[in-house]
Specification:
432 residues, alpha/beta, Rossmann fold, 3 domains, seven-stranded mixed beta sheet, two-stranded antiparallel sheet, 19 helices, 11 strands, 15% strand, binds S-adenosylmethionine
Length: 432
């Protein structure tokens, strides 16, 4: 298969015109899957019957080599991406040759675009790769209004600071328009930032900063503790925060810092699907609240199905279930009202100037794929979590957990293939 892929890439063949790159990616992915099949046949034959997602999740345990397992997962995910067309990628290919030569954006001379730090040399981790797959999900259309607002607001030479940039999905959408502004990606997760670095290392418009957790002070570093000098004098024109503001435990302090680094006419563009909006219709979901519903439904399923007898026993221990509820709330934080956010912006001296709300069709299967990356948080009580029990669940328990999640989701969404999830958008202008 690899030989066939190599032949496609190296020879010019008019019959394969337009499809050779994708065909080569398909062949390489099949070759990788065949190698994994061989590995599982030798080490754990039951795994060959499981989904690729479950296989990649179990790989670090069975390979005993996190680096190699991470690279395999990354290669499979990158090949899978290459096997599918993304509209925004096509647009980039069409636009970039004509525009790239005219690019002039430059970071200030004393600014280090990629700090030489340990996180940048780490292997790419599976959790980040899994998160990154949401880029292709329909519900990630939630970025569209933010992309449009930033494109309208930013001019050449401006700097956007994408706070909680994650794996850089917002940046990749902005960059498809080949803008001439800089994007500084800031995140508290070195794992996510590492994947973002992998994607944009060669794009001079993108810079990276890790804000670390300061254990003694029990807080995450402020952005102005990791950027200094000319970049602050140059001024940050906009701060974006997408799908993350509901995670900040000291929101007023975070916003106050945004205010400090913004230039005089700068603005914040924040959005989240986990804000309770008072005018949201009752049938719209707060996306993280689906998790508690899935958990409750899974408890009902294991109680009724003798195949899950073992797991049902565990659900009858109230203390154990409380411990797993606390674990779930660490992954999926309790939802806060819109007023909480408006007050936090007000307190920080950066009052909100615009609020809007939009609902998106979230595909149940895609939401399942996303949640499966956090199966420990959703249904940790099925098979147990290492951080609670001291030992990891076996592959069978992970398979059961994933299958239960899927079944429970079908019931929660009453067999529908999609549900409506509401997103709230906030804008705050420093100049007003
Ligand atoms: C759901 S992801 C969203 C990533 C990205 N903005 C997007 O829309 O795809 C949430 C991100 O927030 C980051 N995060 C969580 N708490 C944070 C904090 N207090 N300060 C900075 N980043 C934080 C996480 O590391 C993660 O990358």
């Amino acid at each position: 298969m690899l030989d066939a892929a190599h032949a496609l890439i190296s020879k010019s063949d008019t019959k394969a015109q337009g499809i050779w790159a994708r065909a080569a990616a398909h062949l390489c992915r099949q070759a990788l899957e065949a190698s994994l099949d061989k590995l599982w046949t030798a080490r754990m034959p039951e795994m060959t019957e499981t989904s690729m997602r479950a296989q990649l999740a179990c790989l670090p345990t069975y390979l005993d080599n996190d680096d190699l397992a991470g690279r395999i997962a990354y290669t499979w995910s990158a090949l899978s991406n290459a096997c599918h067309h993304h509209v925004y990628e096509l647009e980039r290919q069409r636009l970039s040759p004509a525009l790239q030569w005219s690019m002039t954006f430059q970071w200030p001379s004393d600014f280090v675009r990629i700090p030489v730090e340990e996180w940048g040399r780490r292997p790419i981790e599976e959790l980040a790769l899994k998160y990154d797959t949401v880029e292709a999900h329909g519900w990630y259309r939630n970025l569209e209004p933010t992309v449009a607002a930033l494109q309208a607001f930013l001019n050449d030479d401006d700097v956007l600071l994408d706070y909680s940039a994650g794996t850089g999905i917002l940046a990749s959408r902005l960059l498809t328009g080949d803008p001439d502004f800089g994007i500084l990606l800031v995140d508290s997760s070195p794992k996510f930032l590492r994947l973002a670095l992998e994607k944009f290392r060669h794009d001079e418009r993108v810079a990276f900063r890790w804000v670390r957790y300061l254990r003694d002070e029990k807080r995450i570093q402020f952005v102005d503790e990791v950027i200094q000098g000319e970049i602050l004098a140059h001024g940050i024109k906009a701060v974006s925060s997408t799908n993350a503001i509901h995670l900040y435990y000291d929101l007023p302090a975070t916003i106050a810092c945004w205010k400090r680094i913004l230039c005089r006419d700068g603005a914040v563009f924040a959005q989240s699907g986990n804000i309770r909006h008072p005018r949201a219709p009752a049938e719209h979901w707060i996306i993280d609240e689906t998790v508690a519903a899935v958990h409750e439904e899974a408890v009902r399923i294991v109680a009724a199905d003798p195949n899950y007898r073992l797991y049902a026993e565990g659900t009858r221990e109230p203390e154990r279930m409380k411990t797993y509820e606390r674990l779930r709330r660490k992954f999926f934080l309790p939802v806060r009202d819109l007023d909480y956010y408006l007050e936090a912006f007000e307190t920080a001296g950066l009052p909100v100037t615009d609020v809007s709300y939009t609902a998106y069709d979230a595909d149940v299967e895609q939401w399942y794929q996303f949640l499966s990356a956090y199966h420990e948080g959703v249904l940790g009580w099925v098979g147990g979590s290492e951080r609670i029990e001291g030992k990891p669940p076996g592959p069978k328990a992970i398979e059961d957990r994933l299958a239960l999640m899927r079944k429970a989701m079908d019931r929660v969404f009453e067999g529908n293939t999609s549900f409506l999830a509401g997103w709230t958008y906030l804008r705050a202008d420093k100049g007003r």
